[in-house]
Amino acid sequence: MKVAVLGSGAMGCLFGAAFHRAGADVTLVDVNAEHVGAINTRGLEVDLRSGAETLPIRAALPHEVTEPVDLVLVFTKTFHTKAALEGIAAAIGDDTHLLSLQNGLGNDRRLAGFVSDERVMVGASMLPSDLVGPGRIRSHGEGYSRLYPAFGGDPAMAQRAADLLTQGGLETVLDPKIHEGIWSKAIFNATMNPLCALTRRTPGFLGANAESRATILAAVAEGVAAAHANGVMLDGQPIYDLTEVSMTDHADHEPSMLQDLNAKRRTEVDAINGAIVTAAKEAGVEAPVLETLWHLVKLEETKLAN
Ligand SMILES: NC(=O)C1=CN([C@@H]2O[C@H](COP(=O)(O)OP(=O)(O)OC[C@H]3O[C@@H](n4cnc5c(N)ncnc54)[C@H](OP(=O)(O)O)[C@@H]3O)[C@@H](O)[C@H]2O)C=CC1
Ligand SMILES: CC(C)(CO)C(=O)C(=O)O
Question: Closest ligand 1 atom, CA of 255?
């Protein structure tokens, strides 16, 4: 299978490496010329709990991709999705499937329109990953990923992608209730990521303090109520369980929102907290804790811009 990973930062490289190990023909596509150059010169350096390896994977700038692929795995930040897909129009042919495992709500809508609906797949991943430097990533935590066609239809391509990822070392399952899974992950991120970003601390710190634990309980409860008001009948307990896993197994991982603020970059808080709060209000319920976390992160972004 020919795979183009669109946005080959922390997560794109982790997943591109898994596809490569499973024998797929992978191109890591990114706008960061130094990163692309380092991968092509030295190989992709992957630091995992199980050990370090250097993989000879091809990397390319968007305009260098000239042929259609079977699968485009989108791993840019959510606010870059549309421009990134426009930038690799040549890779998207009549049979190309698109897959997003990005955080937040609305990734299905961002992919729709670039291919027919039955070729859009979405999902979520609990794996942590950090871009350590050009051509180097580090992922020291466990977690599985789930995916499924976003708008229904034949799951054959989703199965192929999940099988390859699992074969390549990243446990991935098909989940017909994928929108519940995506909401659950978004509620988890809307709770943990702003708390880490605002305190400039990792999940282990949140686990050690009563104030963060109380905020986590309140924020998850609001997210669950927002999901239910939107007809997404997910269960809250697995989300609380994920926060515990995060505060123990991922204790030292910098959530992507913290990585963004530390690097003085825009965060994805609009697609995570903003999307949940907006959906809640549209359904007639309030989510004041999630909304306050959203606004505080926006203020941090404003501080960085001034
Ligand atoms: N990191 C993590 O642990 C996890 C992240 N996620 C989610 O995965 C997604 C990706 O996150 P992450 O890997 O951390 O992000 P990164 O910032 O590490 O990687 C995104 C990459 O996309 C590149 N990019 C930006 N615009 C384009 C474009 N037009 N064409 C091609 N590439 C482009 C960026 O370049 P540049 O930096 O120059 O803009 C960057 O290298 C996010 O939605 C995130 O929430 C989900 C689970 C865990
Ligand atoms: C790694 C994980 C699952 C938790 O922090 C994440 O989604 C993120 O960093 O954004």
Answer: 3
Q: What is the mean pLDDT of residues 91-108?
A: 98
List Cβ neighbours of 55 (8 Å cut-off, separation of 6 or more): 17, 20, 21, 43, 44, 46
Q: Ligand 2 centroid to 68 CA: how many Å? A: 31
pLDDT band at 90, cuts 50/70/90?
A: very high
- Domain interval for residue 132: 2-176
CA distances from 77 to 10, 102, 253 (A): 11, 7, 18
Residue from 103, 244, 249 to probe ligand 2 pocket by mutation (most atoms less than 8 Å from CB): 103
CA contacts within 13 A on the Cβ side of 170: 30
Point out which residues pair with 183 in neighbouring strands. none
At 142 the pLDDT is: 84
pTM of the model: 0.97
Quote the ipTM score.
0.98
Give me ligand 1 centre to Cα 32, in Å: 11
Q: How far is CA 242 from CA 23, 203, 249, in A?
A: 32, 11, 10
CATH number (domain holding residue 67): 3.40.50.720
Helix (H, G, I), strand (E, B) or coil at 97: strand
- The reply to whether 8 and 154 lie within a common domain is yes
Structure tokens at 202: 């990792």
Structure token pair of residue 216: 């986590």
CA-based end-to-end distance of the chain: 46
What's the pLDDT band for 171 if we cut at 50, 70, 90? Answer: very high
Q: How far apart are CA 137 and CA 48, in angstroms?
A: 9
